[in-house]
Amino acid sequence: MDLIAAIATGGAACAIGVIRLSGDGCFAACDRVFRSANGRPFSEQEPRKLVMGEMLDSRGQVVDRGMAVRFPAPHSYTGEDAAELHCHGSPVALRELLSALFAAGARQAGPGEFTKRAFLGGRMDLTQAEAVVDLIDAETAAAARNAAAQLRGGLRRVLEPIQESLLDIASRFYAVVDYPDEDIQDVNPQEVSAALVSAQEGLTRLLADCRRGQVLKKGVRTAIVGLPNAGKSSLLNALAGYERAIVTDIPGTTRDTVEESVLCGGVLLRLVDTAGLRDTADAVEQLGVERSRRAMEAAELILLVSDMEADMEQPLPQACWEDFRRLLDQVGRQKAPWIYVASKRDLFGKTAGSFGALGDPDWKGPAAYVSLSSVTGQGMEDLEKAVAALFPAGDPGEAGSLLTDRRQEDAARRALDALRRGREALDAGLTPDAVLTDAEEALDALGELTGRTAREEIVSAIFSRFCVGK
Predict the structure, then answer these.
(1) Nearest alpha-carbon partner for 215 in 403, 449, 4
(2) Among residues 466, 426, 420, 428, which one has the least CA distance to residue 445?
(3) Residue 469 and residue 132: Cα distance in Å, rounded?
(4) pLDDT single digits (tens) 120-156
(5) Rounded to an integer, what distance in angstroms lies between the CA atom of residue 363 and that of residue 325?
Protein backbone atom coordinates (compact mmCIF):
# COMPACT_ATOMS: atom_id res chain seq x y z
CA MET A 1 0.00 0.00 0.00
CA ASP A 2 1.22 3.52 -0.73
CA LEU A 3 2.44 5.72 2.11
CA ILE A 4 -0.11 7.99 3.80
CA ALA A 5 0.39 10.66 6.45
CA ALA A 6 -1.87 13.03 8.39
CA ILE A 7 -2.00 15.26 11.45
CA ALA A 8 -3.98 13.21 13.97
CA THR A 9 -4.58 16.00 16.51
CA GLY A 10 -6.53 18.51 14.43
CA GLY A 11 -5.62 21.98 13.19
CA ALA A 12 -5.88 23.97 16.44
CA ALA A 13 -2.91 24.77 18.67
CA CYS A 14 -2.51 22.23 21.47
CA ALA A 15 0.10 20.96 23.94
CA ILE A 16 1.12 17.90 21.90
CA GLY A 17 0.71 17.34 18.17
CA VAL A 18 0.81 13.91 16.51
CA ILE A 19 1.46 12.96 12.90
CA ARG A 20 0.65 9.42 11.82
CA LEU A 21 2.11 7.47 8.90
CA SER A 22 1.33 4.06 7.43
CA GLY A 23 2.34 2.13 4.33
CA ASP A 24 5.32 1.16 2.22
CA GLY A 25 8.42 3.28 2.77
CA CYS A 26 7.17 4.52 6.16
CA PHE A 27 10.47 4.12 8.02
CA ALA A 28 12.61 5.49 5.17
CA ALA A 29 10.46 8.64 5.08
CA CYS A 30 10.83 9.08 8.84
CA ASP A 31 14.63 8.76 8.46
CA ARG A 32 14.50 11.95 6.39
CA VAL A 33 12.42 14.02 8.83
CA PHE A 34 13.54 12.71 12.24
CA ARG A 35 17.04 12.83 13.70
CA SER A 36 17.26 10.79 16.91
CA ALA A 37 19.26 11.92 19.92
CA ASN A 38 20.89 8.47 20.21
CA GLY A 39 22.39 8.75 16.71
CA ARG A 40 20.66 5.68 15.26
CA PRO A 41 18.43 6.01 12.18
CA PHE A 42 14.70 5.88 12.88
CA SER A 43 14.41 2.65 10.87
CA GLU A 44 16.75 0.94 13.35
CA GLN A 45 15.09 2.12 16.53
CA GLU A 46 13.53 -0.40 18.90
CA PRO A 47 9.89 -1.10 17.91
CA ARG A 48 7.04 0.40 19.97
CA LYS A 49 9.41 2.52 22.06
CA LEU A 50 9.39 6.33 22.02
CA VAL A 51 12.74 7.93 21.23
CA MET A 52 13.74 11.60 21.59
CA GLY A 53 15.01 13.57 18.61
CA GLU A 54 14.68 16.55 16.29
CA MET A 55 11.95 17.13 13.69
CA LEU A 56 13.23 18.36 10.31
CA ASP A 57 11.50 20.28 7.53
CA SER A 58 11.92 19.52 3.82
CA ARG A 59 15.22 21.49 3.77
CA GLY A 60 16.63 19.52 6.70
CA GLN A 61 16.28 22.38 9.16
CA VAL A 62 15.08 21.74 12.71
CA VAL A 63 11.49 22.85 13.32
CA ASP A 64 10.92 21.19 16.69
CA ARG A 65 12.11 18.62 19.18
CA GLY A 66 9.95 15.68 20.14
CA MET A 67 9.44 11.94 20.22
CA ALA A 68 8.95 9.29 17.55
CA VAL A 69 7.91 5.64 17.60
CA ARG A 70 7.76 2.97 14.92
CA PHE A 71 5.38 0.01 14.61
CA PRO A 72 6.66 -2.68 12.22
CA ALA A 73 4.05 -4.77 10.37
CA PRO A 74 1.97 -6.68 11.22
CA HIS A 75 1.94 -5.45 14.82
CA SER A 76 0.49 -2.01 14.15
CA TYR A 77 -2.95 -0.38 14.07
CA THR A 78 -3.21 -0.79 10.30
CA GLY A 79 -1.25 -4.02 10.01
CA GLU A 80 1.32 -2.19 7.83
CA ASP A 81 4.58 -0.50 8.76
CA ALA A 82 3.42 2.54 10.71
CA ALA A 83 4.91 5.37 12.75
CA GLU A 84 3.98 8.38 14.87
CA LEU A 85 5.82 11.65 15.35
CA HIS A 86 5.00 13.53 18.57
CA CYS A 87 6.00 17.18 18.86
CA HIS A 88 4.64 20.43 20.27
CA GLY A 89 1.14 21.18 19.01
CA SER A 90 2.09 24.22 16.93
CA PRO A 91 0.02 24.19 13.72
CA VAL A 92 2.99 25.76 11.87
CA ALA A 93 5.48 23.13 13.05
CA LEU A 94 3.05 20.31 12.27
CA ARG A 95 2.36 21.63 8.76
CA GLU A 96 6.11 21.97 8.08
CA LEU A 97 6.73 18.42 9.25
CA LEU A 98 3.81 17.08 7.21
CA SER A 99 5.11 18.89 4.10
CA ALA A 100 8.51 17.27 4.65
CA LEU A 101 6.85 13.86 4.72
CA PHE A 102 5.02 14.65 1.47
CA ALA A 103 8.39 15.56 -0.05
CA ALA A 104 9.69 12.19 1.17
CA GLY A 105 7.00 10.30 -0.76
CA ALA A 106 3.93 10.28 1.45
CA ARG A 107 0.49 11.56 0.47
CA GLN A 108 -2.29 13.10 2.52
CA ALA A 109 -4.45 10.44 4.18
CA GLY A 110 -8.17 10.61 3.55
CA PRO A 111 -10.88 10.62 6.27
CA GLY A 112 -10.69 7.38 8.26
CA GLU A 113 -8.08 5.90 5.92
CA PHE A 114 -5.93 4.49 8.73
CA THR A 115 -8.90 2.63 10.21
CA LYS A 116 -10.07 1.57 6.75
CA ARG A 117 -6.67 -0.02 6.13
CA ALA A 118 -6.95 -1.78 9.48
CA PHE A 119 -10.35 -3.16 8.38
CA LEU A 120 -9.17 -4.18 4.91
CA GLY A 121 -6.10 -5.80 6.45
CA GLY A 122 -8.21 -7.93 8.78
CA ARG A 123 -7.16 -6.14 11.96
CA MET A 124 -10.81 -5.43 12.83
CA ASP A 125 -14.28 -6.07 11.47
CA LEU A 126 -16.73 -3.40 10.39
CA THR A 127 -18.49 -3.21 13.77
CA GLN A 128 -15.14 -2.50 15.44
CA ALA A 129 -14.30 0.13 12.83
CA GLU A 130 -17.62 1.86 13.48
CA ALA A 131 -16.86 1.71 17.20
CA VAL A 132 -13.78 3.87 16.63
CA VAL A 133 -15.82 6.84 15.40
CA ASP A 134 -18.53 6.11 18.00
CA LEU A 135 -15.90 6.38 20.73
CA ILE A 136 -14.64 9.68 19.32
CA ASP A 137 -18.18 11.07 19.10
CA ALA A 138 -19.40 9.67 22.46
CA GLU A 139 -21.21 12.29 24.56
CA THR A 140 -21.86 10.18 27.65
CA ALA A 141 -19.78 7.81 29.78
CA ALA A 142 -22.17 4.95 28.96
CA ALA A 143 -21.78 5.57 25.21
CA ALA A 144 -18.00 5.63 25.56
CA ARG A 145 -18.00 2.36 27.52
CA ASN A 146 -20.20 0.67 24.94
CA ALA A 147 -18.03 1.88 22.03
CA ALA A 148 -14.83 0.81 23.80
CA ALA A 149 -16.25 -2.66 24.47
CA GLN A 150 -17.43 -2.93 20.85
CA LEU A 151 -13.95 -1.91 19.71
CA ARG A 152 -12.65 -4.88 21.70
CA GLY A 153 -14.95 -7.16 19.70
CA GLY A 154 -18.03 -7.27 21.93
CA LEU A 155 -20.54 -7.33 19.07
CA ARG A 156 -18.37 -9.60 16.93
CA ARG A 157 -18.34 -12.22 19.71
CA VAL A 158 -22.15 -12.22 19.75
CA LEU A 159 -22.43 -12.59 15.97
CA GLU A 160 -19.64 -15.11 15.34
CA PRO A 161 -21.43 -18.18 16.82
CA ILE A 162 -24.51 -17.40 14.72
CA GLN A 163 -22.45 -17.09 11.56
CA GLU A 164 -20.40 -20.21 12.29
CA SER A 165 -23.46 -22.41 12.87
CA LEU A 166 -25.04 -21.28 9.59
CA LEU A 167 -21.74 -21.68 7.74
CA ASP A 168 -21.41 -25.21 9.08
CA ILE A 169 -24.83 -26.16 7.73
CA ALA A 170 -24.22 -24.53 4.32
CA SER A 171 -20.72 -25.97 3.89
CA ARG A 172 -21.91 -29.51 4.65
CA PHE A 173 -24.66 -29.15 2.07
CA TYR A 174 -22.14 -28.18 -0.60
CA ALA A 175 -19.67 -30.86 0.52
CA VAL A 176 -22.26 -33.61 0.03
CA VAL A 177 -23.19 -32.25 -3.42
CA ASP A 178 -19.64 -31.62 -4.63
CA TYR A 179 -18.09 -34.81 -3.26
CA PRO A 180 -20.77 -37.52 -3.52
CA ASP A 181 -18.18 -40.33 -3.37
CA GLU A 182 -16.78 -39.16 -0.04
CA ASP A 183 -18.15 -40.45 3.22
CA ILE A 184 -19.64 -37.12 4.33
CA GLN A 185 -22.62 -37.24 6.64
CA ASP A 186 -25.67 -35.56 5.15
CA VAL A 187 -27.44 -32.79 7.04
CA ASN A 188 -30.70 -33.92 8.60
CA PRO A 189 -33.75 -31.69 9.18
CA GLN A 190 -33.28 -31.75 12.97
CA GLU A 191 -29.78 -30.25 12.69
CA VAL A 192 -30.97 -27.57 10.29
CA SER A 193 -33.92 -26.70 12.53
CA ALA A 194 -31.69 -26.50 15.63
CA ALA A 195 -29.24 -24.20 13.84
CA LEU A 196 -32.01 -21.94 12.58
CA VAL A 197 -33.69 -21.77 15.99
CA SER A 198 -30.43 -20.94 17.77
CA ALA A 199 -29.54 -18.24 15.24
CA GLN A 200 -33.04 -16.78 15.32
CA GLU A 201 -33.03 -16.59 19.13
CA GLY A 202 -29.63 -14.87 19.13
CA LEU A 203 -30.69 -12.23 16.61
CA THR A 204 -34.02 -11.69 18.38
CA ARG A 205 -32.17 -10.89 21.62
CA LEU A 206 -29.80 -8.61 19.77
CA LEU A 207 -32.61 -6.67 18.08
CA ALA A 208 -34.63 -6.42 21.29
CA ASP A 209 -31.89 -4.20 22.71
CA CYS A 210 -31.08 -2.18 19.57
CA ARG A 211 -33.25 0.73 20.73
CA ARG A 212 -31.10 1.01 23.84
CA GLY A 213 -27.96 1.02 21.71
CA GLN A 214 -29.27 3.85 19.56
CA VAL A 215 -30.26 5.86 22.65
CA LEU A 216 -26.73 5.43 24.01
CA LYS A 217 -25.25 6.69 20.78
CA LYS A 218 -27.63 9.40 19.60
CA GLY A 219 -29.61 10.35 22.69
CA VAL A 220 -33.36 10.92 22.98
CA ARG A 221 -35.21 13.59 21.00
CA THR A 222 -37.13 15.39 23.73
CA ALA A 223 -39.77 18.08 23.29
CA ILE A 224 -40.56 20.45 26.17
CA VAL A 225 -44.14 21.55 25.63
CA GLY A 226 -46.71 23.53 27.60
CA LEU A 227 -48.85 26.63 27.61
CA PRO A 228 -47.14 30.04 27.42
CA ASN A 229 -45.27 31.07 30.58
CA ALA A 230 -45.54 27.57 32.08
CA GLY A 231 -41.82 27.35 32.87
CA LYS A 232 -40.54 25.50 29.79
CA SER A 233 -37.53 27.74 29.12
CA SER A 234 -36.68 27.81 32.83
CA LEU A 235 -36.60 24.00 32.82
CA LEU A 236 -34.33 23.98 29.75
CA ASN A 237 -31.96 26.42 31.44
CA ALA A 238 -31.95 24.38 34.66
CA LEU A 239 -31.10 21.19 32.77
CA ALA A 240 -28.47 22.91 30.62
CA GLY A 241 -26.86 24.62 33.61
CA TYR A 242 -26.87 28.07 32.03
CA GLU A 243 -29.31 30.57 30.49
CA ARG A 244 -29.77 28.95 27.10
CA ALA A 245 -33.25 30.41 26.57
CA ILE A 246 -34.68 33.82 27.40
CA VAL A 247 -37.03 33.77 30.38
CA THR A 248 -39.55 36.54 31.13
CA ASP A 249 -42.96 36.86 32.74
CA ILE A 250 -44.45 37.78 29.36
CA PRO A 251 -46.36 34.89 27.75
CA GLY A 252 -45.16 34.04 24.23
CA THR A 253 -41.52 35.07 24.78
CA THR A 254 -40.28 31.90 23.04
CA ARG A 255 -41.31 32.31 19.39
CA ASP A 256 -39.13 29.56 17.86
CA THR A 257 -37.76 26.20 18.96
CA VAL A 258 -34.54 26.33 21.03
CA GLU A 259 -32.34 23.20 21.08
CA GLU A 260 -29.78 21.95 23.60
CA SER A 261 -28.19 18.60 24.53
CA VAL A 262 -28.09 17.74 28.24
CA LEU A 263 -27.51 14.76 30.53
CA CYS A 264 -30.51 13.86 32.66
CA GLY A 265 -30.38 10.72 34.79
CA GLY A 266 -27.39 9.55 32.78
CA VAL A 267 -29.42 9.78 29.55
CA LEU A 268 -28.47 12.16 26.75
CA LEU A 269 -31.52 14.28 25.95
CA ARG A 270 -31.69 16.31 22.73
CA LEU A 271 -33.97 18.97 24.18
CA VAL A 272 -36.21 21.18 22.10
CA ASP A 273 -37.79 24.07 24.01
CA THR A 274 -40.93 24.96 22.10
CA ALA A 275 -43.18 27.98 21.85
CA GLY A 276 -46.24 27.88 24.10
CA LEU A 277 -48.99 25.81 22.47
CA ARG A 278 -52.14 27.89 22.28
CA ASP A 279 -54.43 29.48 19.72
CA THR A 280 -53.14 32.94 18.87
CA ALA A 281 -53.84 35.70 16.37
CA ASP A 282 -50.17 36.72 16.32
CA ALA A 283 -48.81 35.48 12.95
CA VAL A 284 -45.21 35.18 14.21
CA GLU A 285 -46.21 33.34 17.37
CA GLN A 286 -48.44 31.02 15.32
CA LEU A 287 -45.43 29.97 13.22
CA GLY A 288 -43.65 29.06 16.45
CA VAL A 289 -46.69 27.09 17.62
CA GLU A 290 -46.73 25.06 14.38
CA ARG A 291 -43.03 24.26 14.77
CA SER A 292 -43.73 23.22 18.35
CA ARG A 293 -46.40 20.77 17.22
CA ARG A 294 -44.02 19.24 14.67
CA ALA A 295 -41.31 18.93 17.32
CA MET A 296 -43.77 17.14 19.61
CA GLU A 297 -44.79 14.72 16.85
CA ALA A 298 -41.16 13.87 16.07
CA ALA A 299 -40.12 13.50 19.73
CA GLU A 300 -39.13 10.26 21.47
CA LEU A 301 -39.94 11.80 24.86
CA ILE A 302 -42.27 14.66 25.77
CA LEU A 303 -42.00 16.79 28.90
CA LEU A 304 -45.35 18.50 29.44
CA VAL A 305 -44.67 21.48 31.70
CA SER A 306 -47.50 23.16 33.56
CA ASP A 307 -47.80 25.50 36.52
CA MET A 308 -51.40 24.37 37.07
CA GLU A 309 -52.72 21.68 39.42
CA ALA A 310 -52.49 18.33 37.66
CA ASP A 311 -55.47 16.77 39.40
CA MET A 312 -58.11 16.88 36.66
CA GLU A 313 -60.88 16.73 39.29
CA GLN A 314 -59.85 20.19 40.50
CA PRO A 315 -61.20 23.25 38.67
CA LEU A 316 -58.74 25.18 36.48
CA PRO A 317 -58.96 28.86 35.56
CA GLN A 318 -61.60 29.13 32.84
CA ALA A 319 -59.39 31.42 30.71
CA CYS A 320 -56.80 28.69 30.12
CA TRP A 321 -58.88 25.55 30.56
CA GLU A 322 -59.62 24.96 26.86
CA ASP A 323 -55.99 25.47 25.75
CA PHE A 324 -54.72 23.19 28.51
CA ARG A 325 -57.33 20.51 27.86
CA ARG A 326 -56.52 20.57 24.13
CA LEU A 327 -52.76 20.31 24.79
CA LEU A 328 -53.23 17.46 27.27
CA ASP A 329 -55.29 15.60 24.70
CA GLN A 330 -52.63 16.09 21.99
CA VAL A 331 -49.78 14.93 24.19
CA GLY A 332 -51.63 11.80 25.33
CA ARG A 333 -52.19 10.73 21.72
CA GLN A 334 -48.52 10.85 20.70
CA LYS A 335 -46.50 7.65 20.27
CA ALA A 336 -43.73 8.89 22.54
CA PRO A 337 -43.95 8.45 26.32
CA TRP A 338 -44.47 11.65 28.29
CA ILE A 339 -43.77 13.01 31.73
CA TYR A 340 -45.99 15.57 33.44
CA VAL A 341 -43.76 18.24 34.98
CA ALA A 342 -45.54 20.43 37.54
CA SER A 343 -43.34 23.53 37.58
CA LYS A 344 -42.80 26.45 39.97
CA ARG A 345 -42.79 24.30 43.07
CA ASP A 346 -41.01 27.12 44.90
CA LEU A 347 -44.11 29.29 44.39
CA PHE A 348 -46.99 26.83 44.64
CA GLY A 349 -45.57 23.97 46.70
CA LYS A 350 -45.54 20.31 45.73
CA THR A 351 -48.71 19.42 43.85
CA ALA A 352 -50.49 16.07 43.78
CA GLY A 353 -49.79 13.71 40.95
CA SER A 354 -53.05 12.26 39.64
CA PHE A 355 -55.25 12.56 36.58
CA GLY A 356 -58.93 12.04 36.26
CA ALA A 357 -60.13 9.94 33.33
CA LEU A 358 -60.45 11.75 30.03
CA GLY A 359 -62.96 9.18 28.82
CA ASP A 360 -60.98 8.07 25.75
CA PRO A 361 -59.24 4.66 25.54
CA ASP A 362 -56.83 6.02 22.87
CA TRP A 363 -55.45 8.57 25.29
CA LYS A 364 -52.52 7.39 27.41
CA GLY A 365 -51.49 8.94 30.68
CA PRO A 366 -48.03 10.12 31.68
CA ALA A 367 -45.22 7.66 32.37
CA ALA A 368 -44.40 9.70 35.47
CA TYR A 369 -45.49 12.78 37.39
CA VAL A 370 -42.80 15.14 38.68
CA SER A 371 -43.18 18.30 40.75
CA LEU A 372 -40.13 20.56 40.64
CA SER A 373 -38.70 24.06 40.79
CA SER A 374 -36.27 25.15 38.07
CA VAL A 375 -35.17 27.99 40.37
CA THR A 376 -34.31 26.09 43.56
CA GLY A 377 -33.63 22.68 42.03
CA GLN A 378 -36.27 20.96 44.18
CA GLY A 379 -37.57 17.87 42.40
CA MET A 380 -34.91 17.82 39.65
CA GLU A 381 -33.62 14.52 41.00
CA ASP A 382 -37.12 13.07 40.60
CA LEU A 383 -37.10 14.07 36.94
CA GLU A 384 -33.72 12.39 36.47
CA LYS A 385 -35.05 9.17 38.02
CA ALA A 386 -38.13 9.24 35.78
CA VAL A 387 -36.04 9.69 32.63
CA ALA A 388 -33.58 6.96 33.67
CA ALA A 389 -36.50 4.56 34.28
CA LEU A 390 -37.82 5.16 30.75
CA PHE A 391 -34.42 4.78 29.08
CA PRO A 392 -32.34 2.39 31.20
CA ALA A 393 -28.67 1.99 30.34
CA GLY A 394 -28.85 -1.71 31.21
CA ASP A 395 -26.30 -4.08 32.67
CA PRO A 396 -22.74 -2.74 32.20
CA GLY A 397 -21.79 -6.32 31.28
CA GLU A 398 -23.83 -5.91 28.09
CA ALA A 399 -21.60 -3.07 26.87
CA GLY A 400 -20.32 -3.74 23.40
CA SER A 401 -23.11 -6.13 22.45
CA LEU A 402 -25.63 -3.46 21.44
CA LEU A 403 -26.48 -2.53 17.87
CA THR A 404 -25.90 1.22 17.71
CA ASP A 405 -27.08 2.42 14.30
CA ARG A 406 -29.70 1.86 11.61
CA ARG A 407 -27.28 0.12 9.24
CA GLN A 408 -26.52 -2.57 11.80
CA GLU A 409 -30.18 -2.93 12.75
CA ASP A 410 -31.30 -3.22 9.12
CA ALA A 411 -28.76 -5.97 8.36
CA ALA A 412 -29.70 -7.90 11.51
CA ARG A 413 -33.43 -7.65 10.68
CA ARG A 414 -32.87 -8.93 7.14
CA ALA A 415 -30.93 -11.87 8.54
CA LEU A 416 -33.71 -12.60 11.04
CA ASP A 417 -36.39 -12.43 8.33
CA ALA A 418 -34.44 -14.94 6.20
CA LEU A 419 -34.13 -17.32 9.17
CA ARG A 420 -37.87 -17.10 9.83
CA ARG A 421 -38.61 -17.98 6.20
CA GLY A 422 -36.24 -20.92 6.45
CA ARG A 423 -37.94 -22.27 9.56
CA GLU A 424 -41.39 -21.84 8.01
CA ALA A 425 -40.23 -23.76 4.93
CA LEU A 426 -38.78 -26.53 7.07
CA ASP A 427 -41.96 -26.75 9.19
CA ALA A 428 -43.99 -26.94 5.96
CA GLY A 429 -42.16 -30.17 5.07
CA LEU A 430 -39.64 -28.91 2.54
CA THR A 431 -36.33 -30.76 2.42
CA PRO A 432 -33.30 -29.16 4.14
CA ASP A 433 -31.62 -28.30 0.84
CA ALA A 434 -34.60 -26.06 0.00
CA VAL A 435 -33.79 -24.00 3.10
CA LEU A 436 -30.21 -23.40 1.95
CA THR A 437 -31.15 -20.22 0.07
CA ASP A 438 -32.62 -18.67 3.22
CA ALA A 439 -29.58 -19.63 5.30
CA GLU A 440 -27.25 -18.09 2.71
CA GLU A 441 -29.34 -14.92 2.59
CA ALA A 442 -29.03 -14.63 6.38
CA LEU A 443 -25.27 -15.15 6.11
CA ASP A 444 -25.01 -12.43 3.47
CA ALA A 445 -26.87 -9.97 5.72
CA LEU A 446 -24.67 -10.83 8.71
CA GLY A 447 -21.60 -10.55 6.49
CA GLU A 448 -22.72 -7.07 5.53
CA LEU A 449 -23.06 -6.20 9.21
CA THR A 450 -19.56 -7.40 10.12
CA GLY A 451 -17.93 -6.45 6.83
CA ARG A 452 -17.28 -9.95 5.47
CA THR A 453 -19.47 -9.32 2.45
CA ALA A 454 -20.11 -5.57 2.68
CA ARG A 455 -20.28 -3.71 -0.62
CA GLU A 456 -17.70 -1.05 -1.37
CA GLU A 457 -20.24 1.78 -1.25
CA ILE A 458 -21.31 0.73 2.26
CA VAL A 459 -17.71 0.64 3.45
CA SER A 460 -16.98 4.02 1.87
CA ALA A 461 -20.06 5.58 3.47
CA ILE A 462 -19.00 4.36 6.91
CA PHE A 463 -15.45 5.67 6.69
CA SER A 464 -16.58 9.01 5.30
CA ARG A 465 -17.83 9.76 8.85
CA PHE A 466 -14.28 9.67 10.20
CA CYS A 467 -11.95 12.60 10.71
CA VAL A 468 -8.63 12.83 8.90
CA GLY A 469 -5.84 11.14 10.85
CA LYS A 470 -7.94 8.30 12.29
Answers:
(1) 403
(2) 420
(3) 12
(4) 999 999 999 999 988 888 888 888 888 888 898 888 8
(5) 12
CA pair distance 467, 136, nearest whole angstrom: 9
Q: How confident is the model at residue 399 (pLDDT cuts 50, 70, 90)?
A: low
Residue 65 CA to residue 52 CA, distance in Å, equals: 8
Position 190: which residue type? Q
DSSP string, 30-47: HHHHEEETTS--GGGSPT
Instruction: Identify the pLDDT of residue 417.
Output: 95
Q: 316 near 308, Cβ under 8 Å?
A: yes
For residue 44, what is the DSSP state?
A: G
State phi, psi for 85 to the nearest 5 degrees: -115, 120
- Answer positive or negative: Cα dihedral of 19, 25, 30, 36: positive
Q: On the CB side of 276, how many CA atoms lie within 13 Å of its CA?
A: 24
Cβ neighbors of 291 (< 8 A, separation 6 or more) are 256, 257, 274, 275
pLDDT digits (tens, 9 = 90+) for 276-320: 555 544 544 456 567 777 888 889 999 999 876 544 444 445 556
Q: How far apart are CA 271 and CA 287, in angstroms?
A: 19
